[in-house]
From TrEMBL:
Cofactors, names only: Zn(2+)
A Pfam family hit: ADH_N
Domain Enoyl reductase (ER): 10-343
A single MF term (Gene Ontology): zinc ion binding
UniProt keyword annotation of Nucleus present: no
Keywords: Metal-binding, Oxidoreductase, Zinc
Organism: Deinococcus indicus
Protein name: Alcohol dehydrogenase
Length: 346
């Protein structure tokens, strides 16, 4: 098969012919119908993920059809339409037994610990515990967009953030995760403020349900502006970008006993940023991380999509072929695209 492969970190991937994958005893092979291009893929390509071994095929947001099944797989069969969380739990460790597969100690991550979905076929381990059947009406492009950004935002807002109707939610960064968080929070009855430096992304955030938008380049004090708009600060705030400044703004914009959720990755030299702990203590703030979403919690999100309460298709931006994925990957650090870029032709 043809796959997009990089042999050195930071060097543009190329299309290469590689062997077709075979399923492990507990795994499957999926024919990829669509695969998202995510900033997490960019981090991996830049060498920020210690699990990646070269040469490597990226891609972790995927949907497709099962075409081969390992001998120990009992819950899935050839021909089923599936997606998978970007963190697949082993099912045996303590976190997995507690239902927290998204923080599994021995996790399988397509595109990171193993070759990913920038290819027409991808092998997925721990299939029985992690594959998610797709509703018949959910197309592959939309389903692929759920695998990392949308599902991560859903858990960050509804499970970690514990959003309630009528609460103020601030979303810092309107890339794929941030725009997903805007739509999800608004759909769950929250009043949303979207913050970014790109007016086109803020315009999309408004269409997705943001009540207010702030361009950070024209807002001298973002946290003060959020406090003014909300009458005292956000109840819930998310750093959906992953930068020391957006983290700080997110914490400082909270009202007393508010909740900050860190969703965006802070890696390399930004991995240990300063945090305004004086405010955290004085206002009894909560600081929470959010790392993906376990497969067994997908039905709540999929049910809301089927009922029309959530519309992830509205976040789809460019659709590209596999040959165009190299430039799309390399451009993920410029934040110029609007919405989610998806490979839909292999």
């Amino acid at each position: 098969m043809r796959a997009l492969v990089y042999e050195e970190f930071g060097v543009l991937p190329t299309l290469q012919t590689v062997p077709d994958p075979e399923p492990t005893p507990d795994g499957v092979v999926v024919e990829v119908g669509a695969s998202g291009v995510c900033r997490s893929d960019w981090h991996g390509w830049m060498g920020h993920d210690p699990d990646i071994r070269l040469p490597h095929v990226p891609g972790h947001e995927l949907a497709g059809t099962v075409v081969a099944v390992g001998r120990d797989v009992t819950a899935f069969r050839v021909g089923e339409r599936v997606t998978v969380p970007f963190v697949a739990g082993c099912g045996r460790c303590g976190p997995c037994r507690a239902g927290d597969q998204q923080v599994c100690h021995a996790q399988f991550q397509p595109g990171f610990t193993h070759w990913g979905s920038f290819a027409p076929l991808v092998a997925l381990g721990y299939a029985d515990q992690n594959l998610v059947r797709l509703p018949d009406r959910l197309d592959f492009v939309t389903a692929a967009s759920l695998g990392c950004r949308y599902s991560t935002a859903f858990r960050a807002v509804s499970q970690q953030g514990r959003v309630r109707g009528g609460e103020w939610v601030a979303v810092h960064g309107c890339g794929g995760v941030g725009l997903s968080a805007v739509q999800i929070a608004a759909s769950l009855g929250a009043r949303v403020i979207a913050i970014d430096i790109d007016d086109s992304k803020l315009a999309l955030a408004a269409r997705l349900g943001a009540e207010h938008t702030l361009n950070a380049t024209r807002t001298p004090d973002v946290s003060a502006a959020v406090a003014d708009l909300t009458g005292g600060g956000a109840h819930l705030s998310l750093d959906a970008l992953g930068h020391p400044q957006t983290l700080t703004n997110s914490v400082l914009c909270l009202r007393t006993r508010g909740r900050h959720v860190q969703v965006g990755l802070l890696l390399a030299d930004q991995s240990r940023p300063a945090v305004p702990m004086d405010r955290v203590i004085a206002r009894e703030l909560e600081l929470l991380g959010s790392h993906g979403m376990a497969a067994h919690t997908y039905p709540q999100m999929l049910g809301l999509i089927e009922r029309g309460q959530l519309n992830p298709a509205a976040l789809i931006g460019a659709r590209i072929d596999l040959a165009g994925a190299a430039q799309a990957l390399a451009g993920m650090d410029t934040f110029t695209g609007v919405g989610v870029t998806v490979i839909d032709r292999f």
